[in-house]
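Repro:
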Amino acid sequence: MQVIYHIRAHCTDQDALHGSLVKNKAALVQNQVGLPHPRKYRNAIRENLQAIARGERPDMFGEELLSDILGDSDAKRMILTNANFIYVPDQIFEGGDFYSLVVEKLQAFGTLFHGHDIELSICMRDPGTFIPAAYGQYHGRSFKRFMAGATPALVQWSGLIHRIRTVLPRAKITAWCN
């Protein structure tokens, strides 16, 4: 199974890719591409990732998780989307690093879908417009607290892509800027 996960960054895409996929779901199904509703997988994936983070065995992984998500579909590919996969908006710079938990989450994601082809897609945006837009969604704290010690001038998407490549070296990564 090819598992494609669109983990767009915050303040990018505004779910436009997901909306386009939903509009074209019939064509996707004809081509054996599963596009499950987010309710079918977001909680299940999150709960199993959290179990792995706690050092516990996930309730479901591999074929069992795929079956739970896709049901009786004959899909050969599955597309998932989740803007909050790598972080909720108020933790973008937690620990002073840009999306610092991505490595931990993707290691666990790789465990959940071990033996399957994982592809990641990520929509990005110029850090000069990304940071103010993300801060605009961050309510109740100062800009200094939002940045958590990160230096705006040093924020680069290439570092995030490098960390993704390090943890999932065989995964295909598609990145674009909107």
